[in-house]
Amino acid sequence: LAGFKAGVVASSHLERAYQTADIVQAAFVDYKDRPVRVINHKFGEMRFGEFEGTQIRTTRKAAVTTSESRDQEEEMVAASRRKFLDFQNNILHQNKHAPWPGGESVANVEQRAIVAIQQLMEHFPQVDSFCIVAHGRFNKLLLRALLGFTGYNSFEQGNACINVLDVDQSGNWKARVINHMGHVHSVDLDYNSK
User: Fold this and answer.
1) How far is the first Cα of the chain from the last one, in angstroms, to the nearest whole number?
2) Which residues make beta-bridge pairs with 104?
3) 162-167 and 36-39: which strand pairing?
């Protein structure tokens, strides 16, 4: 973020996002006008309903010790993954208005994301640079909506990635940077070594 001056640092209400946004805001301490800090639930991650918190990938860290319990865990994860991917690939990709069971639809998230952006811009008309700290699926859907893409997985969004967008006076959005990860240093932890 060197050389970038945000007038507002906004984030989701979810812990990882608002803690990261607090760190980002603190990085601007050398500036005369410290950015305004905004927390808005509308920047929260997509609600996945009955899939919320469901593990769909096996972990590298062995959580169980016996081979039988490890096999059971792997089968449960595989079953959850199949159900998750079946719903995502066969329903969500076909109809952006279809919600996750007990959760939100793509259309719901796109709508609240656009509303949140509009509210920021209307509430802070004098600000020309905003920093928004949000979440992976939320970011994908926001980018998709702002930039006019229709593909469900149009964008990769790594953890802690940076996206830079400009908007002109007519409300047309243009991507400058998508999924920049140059500031993140990869660390491969071997959880199984002693």
Assistant:
1) 37
2) none
3) unpaired
Place of tokens 């050398």: 30
E-assigned strands of the chain? 8-11, 36-39, 130-133, 162-167, 173-180
Global pTM? 0.78
Task: Please give the Cα distance from 24 to 37 (Å, whole number).
Answer: 10
Tell me if residue 106 falls in helix, strand or coil: helix
The count of C-alpha atoms lying within 13 angstroms of the C-alpha of 193, restricted to the half-sphere facing its C-beta, is 3
Q: Which residue has the higher pLDDT, 100 or 193?
A: 100
pLDDT tens digits, 157-191 = 888 888 999 999 899 999 999 999 888 765 554 54
Write out the two tokens for 86.
């079946």
Name the residue among 20, 36, 5, 27 with its Cα closest to residue 133.
Answer: 20
- The tokens describing 167, both together, are 């908007």
The count of other CB atoms within 10 Å of the CB of residue 144 is 21
